[in-house]
Please model this.
Amino acid sequence: MFNKLLSQLFQKPESSTPNIYYFEESRQGVDSEKEVENQQADTNRNINPNINNNTNHDGLMFYSFEDEYQQNFYDYLLGESNRVESPNDHELSQLISSKIQSLLKNPKLILDVLPILPLSLTKIIEQINNQEFDTEALIQLIQQEPAIAAKVIELANSVYYNRNNKEITDLKSAFLLLGANGLSEGVINGFVNKLVPNSTIYFRQYGQKIWQHSLSTGITAKALVAKSSIKASAAQAYFIGLICNLGDLVIYQLLTDAFAIVHPDCQPNSTLFKNLMAKESKKLTYFIAKHWNFPDSILDALALQAKVKRAALLPTLHHKMPLACYVYEAKIISQLELRLAHSAIDDEYIKEVSTSLLFTEEANNRLQQVLADKGLEKT
Model:
């Protein structure tokens, strides 16, 4: 997707263009980063005075359990970083990281290369809270997007929706089975899935993991909101949950395209790359959503994902932005669920996730359901 852009970048010296990668501090309900970090530091010290003793398998120090948790997820996503990198590997990682950083400081270059938002998805966004949208008109729009139509039919044939195991082959039958919300989910899935890196087999597994995380976050966000006092927003929660990891998909695509240009044998598991994704992905997601003219309600929720670095702030923000907070918790649960499917996790660690990273009753109940589904004892 970004090969041409990166080819130009790696052939030319870095531009002296001013840094225009600002972020909107004024989004409703979101404090400045400095204030957020100061509040979290006080909270962490009150909860756990030994929090600074957290380390990972490489002996790296973590500021909080949440930092450790996020690093552990990136280890699952991209593979554990090498304890000792050769000078050449480290130099290559620094080169790629610096070039991509320069792109992220001018996000317009990236946004201009992204696919155009299809009319079908624009219609979904406009009508996502409208129970009376024109289904026939929507189906006609979807038919103009073959890849998205295929994803809708795939969803209709999934075990989750198709309990009778009767094959669905057309969009009208898919709608009768899925309903309005299910049809919306299929359209959204179809478009977002088009952004999943489709490179060589060597890298494809990593892109698929990011996609699974996006899908799981959407499903979990929908489930949390459906059990809450704002259950009418469940469809919107699914949408926000699904797209809140778009920045990870785009940055990963940038990485894989860069490897193809400079060194096809390098792996995207260095600590530099993980830090790059952790630092920039949520802000990039916000810019993508703004570029596509998403409604303010969605932009506000995505802004919270980017600005709030610590789950301990959720109780304060929940009464102002409950939907955004449920999405934040859904991301945490999704990360744990995917890791549990990959390897065993200590009971005390899971208990710490419940205590430190989840706030609402709905989120903790969902966590217990995930554990029960995997045959694990409740924490």
About this structure: The domain at 3-8+34-114+195-373 is CATH 1.10.3210 (Hypothetical protein af1432). Residues 201-226 form the longest helix (26 residues). Residues 12-53, 55-61 have pLDDT under 50 and may be disordered.
